[in-house]
From TrEMBL, chain B:
Name of the featured protein: Branched-chain amino acid transport system ATP-binding protein
A Pfam short name: BCA_ABC_TP_C
One GO MF term: L-phenylalanine transmembrane transporter activity
One CC-aspect GO term: plasma membrane
Biological-process GO terms, alphabetical: D-alanine transmembrane transport; L-alanine transport; L-isoleucine import across plasma membrane; L-valine import across plasma membrane
Domain ABC transporter residues, every copy: 8-256
UniProt xrefs under InterPro entries: AAA+_ATPase (IPR003593), ABC_AA/LPS_Transport (IPR051120), ABC_transporter-like_ATP-bd (IPR003439), BCA_ABC_TP_C (IPR032823), P-loop_NTPase (IPR027417)
Keyword annotations: ATP-binding, Nucleotide-binding, Transport
Length: 324, 259
């Protein structure tokens, strides 16, 4: 019964997503949206993919990783090399970008996920910087001047990747594997003593997260015409981290909403370059003061609907909650 | 009730942290179906011994054997799957998860569907999740926790949290259950309920239980045998009656409490 309901909810959201896709597609091909809005839209979608992929690592599994831009860079450069140097089709290049980033995640994850908290954060920060410095010094990918990339990212690609990311990570989270990851976040020693292979799940979350960061990197590279190592510094990692923290650690819809809002805020603040960072920072400070657990806390958007239904259906229970 | 082959045999187990000898030469044998107490003053090494049994620490000397498998050096999750599960002195529930999900986590090792089948929602995902859910609900009913099912674990009253932690440990299907001060912070009535619960689960799940406890009425009341630790060494072992009158134990610990 509940599975049936859940499946219906799934198809309903799929239909809504496709309607949204079709509408935007018509707007773009009809020339209604100018390139500024299209740009913002693509950037927003890429940011959502990044936010959701980091949400799996930090929000669900509780591993504080601040080198996410490193995986973005690996994916961006790997896919750009595929299309520009090896003339491989874009679809395959995206996949290669994702897989390369996932392999990087595996190689980094196995040794560094023994570390906890602050120490893991520093190790992942180091990884991000190493990637950037290596790219800076490899002439094959253009060194500091970067690499020019053909514009291949289109709305169907962006949307498909976004949808797949969200579905995969939501499906992972809502399974016994996702619960295993959450139990690690809640109490690693207890998770261990419940028979959860904590190392395996930490690495798994890390690999899945970096795979999608790599996909985002592929989209990113083929959208901005040029990629440079400076685009992937630790400030980029912090941008992604902020989406996750601001949305509420543990809430995927929170991460999505935060990514959308902050992309809009930072895009429109581009008109005021002098005060941009000040206003952006003020927004962050205010949100953290008034909603210290993030916009949604650990809840999901869907839980609000469920809650309302429960309240409507259970009015006769009201008396039970009076103070005895 | 007891047979001659021990379920768990700790042979000269010890551990030192740097120069500090926390435990040395501890010999403990547990027989199937027994309820055994482990007592001792603060800092005697009781919880350290639990941590050795469950793989949180690896013993620096001696061996631990469950059935006929050596446990030394195994990762904690593997030891749990071999049949030892535990509760903690300071309750360690998954606070943000619901009561039901807490128990579901313990069923994780029984799940046969892979990460891939969950991501792509293969039929094996649905059947696997359904099986876990049904078993977990059934389990909560045994412990009369089903009314709290969708409540976050951290919002439960203290006594119920203890109950849930024991339920969760049992859901991992242990042969040997380790309870680390289950009555800590409970009033006499709650302790009485706990004693009933322990008797009940022992009957129902055919368990062997090792219990750390400070509450002497509980230990003396329910345990068949008692081991006494002091300063990292076993100083006595025997029936509650023997322990009550053992000079070393009285000297170390029980003097003002019991006599």
């Amino acid at each position: 019964m509940t599975t049936l309901k859940r499946i219906n909810g799934f198809w309903l959201s799929m239909v809504l997503a496709l309607v949204f896709f079709g509408a935007v597609h018509l707007l773009i091909s009809g020339g209604v949206l100018n390139s500024f809005y299209i740009n913002t839209l693509f950037f927003m979608a890429i940011n959502i993919i990044l936010a959701v992929s980091l949400h799996l690592i930090i929000g669900i599994t509780g591993q504080f990783s601040i080198g996410h831009a490193g995986f973005l860079a690996v994916g961006a450069y790997a896919s750009a090399i595929m299309t520009m140097k090896l003339q491989i089709p874009f679809s395959l290049a995206l996949l290669v970008g994702g897989v390369t980033a996932a392999v990087a995640g595996l190689l980094i994850g196995i040794p560094s996920l023994r570390l906890k908290g602050d120490y893991l954060a520093i190790a992942t920060l180091g990884f991000g910087e190493i990637v950037r410095i290596i790219l800076l010094n490899v002439d094959y990918v253009g060194g500091a001047s970067g690499m020019t990339v053909t514009h291949l990212t289109s709305w169907p690609w962006v949307f498909a990747c976004l949808l797949i990311t969200i579905i995969v990570i939501a499906n992972f989270t809502n399974s016994t594997h996702g619960r295993a990851c959450i139990s690690i976040r809640e109490d690693e020693i207890a998770a261990d003593s419940m028979g959860i292979n904590t190392t395996y799940y930490k690495v798994a979350a890390f690999v899945i997260g970096s795979f999608f960061a790599g996909i985002a990197g592929g989209l990113y590279a083929h959208h901005f015409y040029i990629i440079q190592p400076t685009n992937f510094g630790f400030l980029k990692s912090f941008d992604i981290l902020i989406f996750v923290v601001l949305g509420g650690l543990g809430s995927m819809s929170g991460a999505v909403i935060a990514a959308i809002l902050l992309t809009i805020v930072s895009t429109f603040l581009q008109d005021y370059p002098e005060t941009r960072m000040i206003i952006y920072s003020l927004v962050l400070i205010l949100v953290m003061i008034y909603r210290p657990k993030g916009l949604l806390g650990t809840r999901e958007l869907t839980s609000f609907f469920r809650l309302r239904r429960a309240v409507e259906g259970g009015k006769q229970n009201d008396n039970k909650h009076t103070v005895a | 009730m007891t047979t001659n082959i021990p379920l768990l045999k700790a042979d000269h187990v010890g551990i030192h942290f740097g120069g500090l000898k926390a435990l040395a030469g501890v010999n403990i044998e547990l027989y199937p179906g027994e309820l055994v107490g482990l007592i001792g003053p603060n800092g005697a090494g009781k919880t350290t011994f639990f941590n050795l049994l469950t793989g949180v620490y690896e013993p620096t000397e001696g061996s631990i054997v469950l059935g006929n498998e050596k446990l030394n050096g195994l990762a904690p999750y593997k030891i749990t799957r071999k049949g030892i599960s535990r509760t903690f002195q300071n309750i360690r529930l998954f606070g943000e998860l619901s009561v039901l999900d807490n128990v579901k986590v313990a069923y994780h090792s029984l799940a046969r569907h892979s990460i891939f089948s969950s991501i792509f929602r293969f039929p094996s995902h649905f059947s696997g999740e359904k099986e876990i859910e049904e078993k977990a609900i059934e389990f909560l009913k045994i412990f009369k926790l089903e009314s709290y099912m969708h409540e976050k674990a951290k919002n439960l009253p203290y006594g119920q949290q203890r109950r849930l932690e024991i339920a969760r440990a049992l859901a991992a299907h242990p042969k040997l259950l380790l309870l680390d001060e289950p009555a800590a912070g409970m009033n006499p009535q709650e302790t009485q309920e706990l004693m009933n619960l322990i008797a009940f689960i022992r009957e129902k799940f055919h368990l062997t239980i090792l219990l750390i406890e400070h509450d002497m009425s509980l230990v003396m009341g329910v345990c068949e045998r008692i081991y006494v630790l002091d300063h990292g060494q076993l100083i006595a072992h025997g029936t509650p009656e023997e322990i009550r009158n053992h000079p070393k134990v009285i000297e170390a610990y029980l003097g003002e409490e019991v006599s």
